TrEMBL record:
Pfam families hit by this protein: 3-dmu-9_3-mt
Protein name: VOC family protein
Coiled-coil stretches: none
Organism superkingdom: Bacteria
Organism listed in the record: Nonomuraea rosea
PhnB-like domain mapped to chain residues: 3-129
CDD domains: PhnB_like
């Protein structure tokens, strides 16, 4: 087997499916590859995501709804970096991901790119959006 690294997103409030569906709506070449859910009497809340694999722009991701509560969550120290092809794409993604979230760096020219923005979405996942 060839070694493979896949970003893995752990949600703790039953948000995995909502987040995954939201992300799928934003990116091309996006689809759910596989999803399994907790059933009645299992450790997680029935119907929530036990494990899912999905793709965004051809990149594979995994996510779960953790049935164990942790003292940590997402942090901007680890972010998903998106290279955008157009200013319109950058603006669309920034607007959608900012809704209910927290802008960390507003869209602007910071000297290292034409336009850049950084945001935590409403689920706490951090996104860097760049127009080279």
């Amino acid at each position: 087997m060839t070694q493979k690294i896949t970003p893995f997103l752990m949600f703790q409030k039953g948000d995995a499916e909502e987040a995954m569906t939201f992300y799928l709506s934003l990116f091309d070449d996006a689809k759910i590859v596989a999803i399994s859910r907790y059933g009645a009497g299992e450790s997680g809340k029935e119907g929530t995501v036990r494990h899912a694999t999905f793709t965004l722009a051809g990149q594979e991701y995994m996510c779960i709804d953790s049935d164990v509560q942790h003292q940590f969550t997402f942090t901007p120290s680890m972010s998903l970096y998106v290279g955008c092809d157009t200013e319109e794409e950058l603006q669309r993604l920034y607007t959608a991901l900012s809704e209910g979230g927290q802008p960390l760096m507003p869209l602007d020219s910071y000297g290292f790119s034409t336009k850049f923005g950084w945001v935590n979405d409403r689920f706490g996942v951090s996104w860097q959006l760049n127009l080279p």
